[in-house]
Amino acid sequence: MATALVSQENVVASLVSRTGRHLQRYDKGRRQVVGCIPYRYKNGNSNASEVEDELEVLVISSQKGKGKLFPKGGWELDETITQAASRETYEEAGVKGIVEPQLGNWTFQSRAHGTDYDGYLFPLRVTEVLDFWPEKNNRQRIWMSVDEARECCQRGWMKEALDVLVDRLAGRQQLGEEEMGSCSASHQAKSNL
């Protein structure tokens, strides 16, 4: 049995969030912010009749503890947009998973700085929930229903992205059901020959 040796430096480095704005991306003076809506299905069931009934999303507390939101942060010059979204979600929420195609982009005003930012959100189908992550001591994470997330999320643009995600997943489910129906109709027609 092979044993991997992990140095203490690597463990510590992986539990430290990036800080500072010297690598931040800007476009026309607007800071570029990316993040994810981490999601999973209750009991692993994505085939329920209503996507919203089975879908859970992960929200985190804001740094100042006033309200809930989806993990997001600055997109830096040395990473792709999906790398940045995945990194921010790991640092702030302690989850990893599959980053799916972008939900959209929004311009919003920073509450702290009063300037416009460009925000990009992606769905992240969660495959791993970590016990330790860089901002564990600074944030709470909470799995909740879509309705609960709509109610408590403090950012309008994030609520819009959540609606896009639900519509996309419902459309994907409907497409799967139609394919199953046509497959079964095709099988029935062949068996009648």
Q: How many beta-strand segments? A: 9
* Silhouette: globular
Question: How helix-rich are the residues, as a percent range?
Answer: 25-40%
Q: Please tally the helical runs, counting DSSP H or I stretches of 4 or more residues.
A: 5
Largest sheet: 9 strands, mixed
Order of helices and strands: HEEHEEEHEEEEHH
Mean pLDDT: 82
Distance between the termini: 56 Å
Radius of gyration: 20 Å
Please state roughly what percent of the residues sit in beta strands, choosing from under 5%, 5-15%, 15-25%, 25-35%, 35-45% or over 45%: 25-35%
What's the multimeric state? single chain
Based on secondary structure, the structural category is: alpha+beta
Uncertain stretches: 1-13, 182-192
Cofactor: Mg(2+); Mn(2+)
Family: Belongs to the Nudix hydrolase family.
Keywords: Hydrolase, Magnesium, Manganese, Metal-binding
Domain Nudix hydrolase: 29-166
Question: How would you describe this protein?
Answer:
The protein is of the alpha+beta class and 193 residues long. Helix content is 35%, strand content 29%. The chain has helices spanning 8-14, 51-54, 81-93, 146-152, 156-191, and strands at residues 26-27, 30-41, 55-61, 68-69, 72-74, 95-99, 104-109, 116-129, 141-145. Strands 1, 2, 3, 4, 5, 6, 7, 8 and 9 form a nine-stranded mixed beta sheet that branches. A hairpin with a 2-residue loop joins strand 1 and strand 2 (30-41). The chain is globular and about 45 Å long. It starts with 7 loop residues before the first helix and ends with a helix. The model is unreliable at 1-13 and 182-192 (pLDDT under 50).
